Sequence to fold (413 residues):
Amino acid sequence: MRPVRDIRAVPTLFLIVVVDLVGFGLVIPLLPFYAVRFAASPQEVTALVAVYSLAQLVTAPLWGRLSDRVGRRPVLLVSLAASALAYLWLGGATAPWMLFAARAFAGACAGNIAAAQAYVADVTQPEERARGMGLIGAAFGLGFMIGPALGGLLAGNDPVAADLETPAWVASGLSALALLGVALLLPESLPGDRRDGAPQPGRVFAVLNVLRRPVLSRLIFVNFLVILAFAGMQSVFAIWAMPQLGWGPGQVGYVFAYVGLVSAVLQGGLIGRLTRYFGEERLLLSGLALIAAGLLLMPFVHHLPVLVGAVTVLALGMGLMQPAINSLISRRAGPEEQGEVMGISQSAASLSRVLGPLAAGYSFAAFGRNSPYFLAGALVAVTLLLALKLPRGRGAATFTETGPFGQEGGPAR
Fold:
């Protein structure tokens, strides 16, 4: 199949990612309830959330590099097939180890997001990059709007008698549908002359070469810290909402759905226009400020209107921050290393999704249910100070840095 080099392919990718992430969103808010069913502690609940990202941490750079060598489409196909199998395993789990094994397998094969981001980089010009990344972010938003609401509806509102099997079966079917979409509708984006089939240095050496570029490494670190804070908050929300608000799976799912709706509207309809007016750097800083404010407001939530305000601020902050920083990271990478750089960024985010839930679970158990939100808000405030030192201005996003093995990185084209 001939590679495509046209941004018009992105809507097709968008629809495929939406379908996959609806399935992903179906089970994410329900994971704590899976664990509670087996009498898990708060630390074990958050560990179940973290194990997916722990496996992804190890494999994401490998998937990214593989997509640079064989193309984006094969990686998407394998990843989606593995997701379908993992959800089947999760739905049939009869012991705690099966829950952990199913999530670890799904994480180890989760190369689809880095491949999707690299696909966007393949088919967009630098000035279109934030808009393209925004569409992938909007796919996340829609996935987390429809998925949690559907999962909550299927599971019910009773935390003790919730139906946790049906959401997993539906998630598996949606991953299979997304797999079919890639196979039938999505052309390859990476031309043969840009695929690096030559032997490459080791993975550790490649990671070190990317991270030694000062601005690129700082961008990845900023993303790491924000996801660390947000993942911790997300992982304890269900067990926080049970005593704080008396909620079950249904209500938790609806909150996740609302966050997804706000994020989808912002990233799908507004991010391109906002980027043209303000630039990625200002959007990044604004997003960080909103995330910090939303996290620090959460401990004071005792009624629904205050919760809506807090999660709205959080969703707006993530909706501004995520496409902006992904665009900045992509524009710092050369065209031949898009998959690898996005894979390393995804791997760093995976590490934060391991450490964030574990830290939040410990803080929840040791210092009370509101402590993870105070800690996360303070961490994002520190991250905002770090981001203020990033280069800003019209040329900052495409400033050339030395890439791996001595070649120039920087503007993709």
